[in-house]
Amino acid sequence: KWLAGKTGKRYRLLSEAEWEYAARAGTATRYWWGDHFAPGFANCLDCGSEWDGERPAQVGRFLPNWFGIHDMHGNVWEWVADWYAEGAYARSPEADPPGPETGETRVRRGGSWHTWAFYGRAAFRNWNRPDTRYTVLGFRLLREVKDSDSPGASGEPPSEGSPPQWGGSRP
Predict the structure, then answer these.
(1) Which of 110, 116, 120, 151 could bridge across to 158 with cysteines, CB 3.0–4.6 Å?
(2) How far apart are CA 135 and CA 133, in angstroms?
């Protein structure tokens, strides 16, 4: 509410399904760059960065994924809006499954600087009580936009160049 009041825009936590979609960035692999962990792509325990096991890195220190989003794997666990319930996805639709409407624990995704790469894979789920606070836990906000706010809505084409801007080839 504070940020919305400052900017006049709507913000919220991502749903768990939105988070996984953003983390995979159009791939079906464990990490946006492939199925095997590659040093230098994320901040996690024994993952080859200068911050491994020490502290979170500043946002944007690693390459963005194919959607242009930084730090979806590692750095800090990210709260999502969904409540956690064992087996909830087994009872949910495959496309854009909604989380439970109530619960005692919330889902967190992405792993952290203090966990091994396995915990940062796109499909890994973890949970904590909403009152949990510590240095390996953070959040990512989604800014809701109206169609008129979208690139191209005014007849102008989207800006040139699509991330990542690093000369790699898509997996």
Answers:
(1) 151
(2) 7
Say how far residue 13 (Cα) sits from the centre of its chain. 10
- The strand order across the sheet containing 137-139 reads 125-128, 106-109, 77-83, 137-139
Preceding omega of 97 cis (within 30 degrees of 0): no
Q: In the numeric block, which tokens belong to residue 26? A: 């159009």
145 pLDDT more than 80: yes
Top pLDDT among 164 and 76 is at: 76
H or E, element range at 21: helix 16-24
Q: Distance between the two ends of the chain, CA-based, in angstroms?
A: 39
Note the Cα 73 to chain centre separation in Å: 7
Nearest partner of 124 among 159, 66, 57, 72, judged by Cα = 72
Distance CA 143, CA 166 (A): 26
* Contact assessment for residue 16 and residue 99, using Cβ atoms and an 8 Å cutoff: yes
Q: What is the pTM of this model?
A: 0.83
- Burial category of 67 from C-beta neighbours within 10 Å (exposed 0-12, middle 13-18, buried 19 and up): middle
Q: Which residues pair with 12 in a beta bridge?
A: 142
d(CA 129, CA 125): 14
3-state class (DSSP) for residue 143: strand
pLDDT score of 98 = 84
Measuring CA to CA, which residue among 37, 13, 26 is closest to residue 69?
Answer: 26
